[in-house]
Design goal:
fructokinase (chains A, B), 5-stranded mixed β-sheet, homodimer, alpha/beta, EC 2.7.1.4 (chains A, B), nucleotide-binding (chains A, B)
C-alpha cells in the first residue's frame, strides 16, 4: 500500500508516504507559510506519488464535523491566512482519493494505538508538551470527537505553592498550557528549558502541573496507556517525577496495577518517537481507505 | 420486548421491566443489605418475569473487563460484604439470558443517549451529584471503559478563595466529591442542603466547583451534551450559576454555540428525570441482547 501522510504543524509541514505496517518510505518537510504557498508545496509533492489515500493530522482548531458546511477548514487560528481556510477541500480538488482528517494529536494517538506504545490496546491518550500543550484521545477503539475535538491542553490546574509565575495562556493565564508548555518554563526561570540542569527544581514543578492533568484524565477516561511526546518531554528526567506525582494525586483510589507498580510502563514516551505524528497521519489515511 | 433492569445503589436497589422504547412497565425497590439477602430479593423478583435480557447498572467500583478473572465482581467498596462479591456471576447462575453490566453512571449516560436529553447524539457525559459524585461517559456511540471505568468524581479542583472547608474525601480531601457532594455542603454550612435558601452563597460556591470539572470535561472530551443528575442537582438554581462559571472557565476558547449562546440547552437535567438510572439499565440489557 502507498498511503500519503501530512503532518501539518504551525512552523513546518512534513509530508511522506507510508504503508499498512506503519513504515515511512520517504518524507520531506518545508516551513509553514501562507496556506496558498504551503498547500502548493504539498500538492507538488504528492502529484506523481500514486497514493491510495491521504491522511492529514494538523494543527488546529479545525472543523472535524462531516455534517458541517465548513468541514475540513481550519477555524479560529491566529496564524495569518489560515483562519477559515479550506485545507481539506483544497487537496480534495487535486487528488481523487479517500482523505483522513483530524488534529495532529488525535493522529498521533491513533498512530501510537496502531503501531506504537499503545499497540493492540483499545484506548490511549496522547499529550504533546512543546510550545503549546495538545491532547489526542483514543477510546474504545475510536478517536474521540464531539462538539469539536479534544483541547485538553487548557484544563485548569492548581498552582504550585512556590510558583509566582502568572502563566502565558492568552485565554486562561495559568491553565496547563499557560503553566507547563515550553515558553512557561523559559519565562519562569529566565533561561531556555534545554539549558536547565536535570536536577533543577524546574522539573519537579513541571511534573507537578503535568501530573495533575494526567491524574484528571485517568479519573475521567481510564485510558490503557498515557503517552507523553513533544519537545519538553525529551527531558526524560520528567518521567519518574510525573509517575510519582500522578500516584500522589490518585492516592490509591484507582485500584489497578498500571497506576501502581506498573506506572513506569503506563505513562511513557511515544513508541514511534518523533515519527508519531507522521505515522499517525498514515494511520488516518489507512482508516479513510478502509471506510471508502 | 421484556428487558429486566437492575439499578443497584448503595442504599437501595430498584428492579424493573422495560421495553425497547425505554418505557418502564413495572418496578420494585428494596434496601441494600448484605449481598446474599439483596441478591435473593433480586432473584425472587425476576423468577417468573420471562425477561429476554437483564441490564445491571451498579454502584462501584466494579470489574468491567470481560478478560478478567473477576469480571462482574464488585471490587474495593467499603460496603460490608460487597467487596469482592461476584454480583454478575450470582445472577448468571439463575437466569440464562444475556446480561449487560456497567456502572450506574455509565448506565445513566447510555439511557440518556438512547431516550433522554442526549437522544440521537454520539456523545454525552452524565454527572450524578448526591452523597458522592459519579461520572458516566458515552463517546463516539459507546460507553467508555479502559483500565477500569470512569471515576471522574474525584478530579482535583481549585479551592474557592473564600472556602475554608477542608473536604471530606478519604482519599483526596478536597477533590470534586470532597468539596461538592451533598455531605460537603452540609458540613461546610452546618445545615442540610435542602434547608439553604435558593439565594444562599452556598450555591455559587457549589457551582464554582462543579463548573471546574465540567469545563475540564468539555476541554478533554468535547461531549455533545452534559447531563447533571443526583439529589444536589434538584436545586435547579444551580444551573444558571454553573452555566456562567463554565463560560468563565472556558473564556471563549472553545468556539461552539453549545458553550456560548446555547449553554442552557447544553448543560441540562436528565431527560429521563429520576428514571435515568433504571432506564439506563434497560438500555444496557438491550445492548447485551443485540450483541448476543
Amino acid at each position: 500500500m502507498r498511503i500519503g501522510a501530512i503532518e501539518a504543524g504551525g512552523t513546518k509541514f512534513v509530508c511522506g508516504i507510508g504503508n499498512e505496517h506503519g513504515d515511512v518510505e520517504e518524507r520531506v518537510s518545508f516551513p509553514t507559510e501562507t496556506p496558498e504557498v504551503t498547500l502548493a508545496n504539498v500538492i507538488n509533492y504528492f502529484r506523481d506519488k500514486k497514493v491510495e489515500a491521504i491522511g492529514i493530522g494538523t494543527f488546529g482548531p479545525i472543523d472535524i464535523d462531516p455534517a458541517s458546511a465548513t468541514y475540513g477548514h481550519v477555524t479560529t487560528t491566529p496564524k495569518p491566512g489560515w483562519g477559515g481556510y479550506d485545507f481539506l477541500g483544497t487537496l480534495k480538488k487535486e487528488f481523487d482519493v479517500p482523505f483522513g482528517w483530524d488534529t495532529d494529536v488525535n493522529a498521533a494517538a491513533l498512530g501510537e494505538a496502531t503501531w506504537g506504545a499503545a499497540k493492540g490496546l483499545s484506548s490511549c491518550v496522547y499529550y504533546t508538551i512543546g510550545t503549546g500543550v495538545g491532547v489526542g484521545v483514543y477510546s474504545e477503539g475510536r478517536l474521540v470527537h464531539g462538539l469539536v475535538h479534544p483541547e485538553g491542553g487548557h484544563v485548569l490546574v492548581r498552582r504550585h505553592p512556590e510558583d509566582t509565575y502568572e502563566g502565558f495562556c492568552p485565554y486562561h493565564g495559568d491553565c496547563l498550557e499557560g503553566m507547563a508548555a515550553g515558553p512557561a518554563i523559559e519565562k519562569r526561570w529566565k533561561v531556555k528549558a534545554s539549558e536547565l540542569p536535570v536536577d533543577h527544581p524546574a522539573w519537579a514543578m513541571e511534573a507537578f502541573y503535568i501530573a495533575q492533568a494526567i491524574a484528571g484524565t485517568i479519573l475521567l477516561l481510564s485510558p490503557k496507556k498515557v503517552i507523553l511526546g513533544g519537545g519538553v518531554m525529551h527531558q526524560l528526567q520528567l518521567f519518574p517525577l510525573i509517575h510519582e506525582q500522578v500516584q500522589r494525586n490518585l492516592n490509591g483510589y484507582v485500584n489497578h496495577p498500571s497506576v501502581k507498580e506498573g506506572i513506569a510502563d503506563y505513562i511513557v514516551s511515544p513508541g514511534l518517537g518523533d515519527n508519531a505524528g507522521l505515522c499517525g497521519s498514515v494511520a488516518l489515511g489507512l482508516e479513510a481507505l478502509k471506510r471508502s
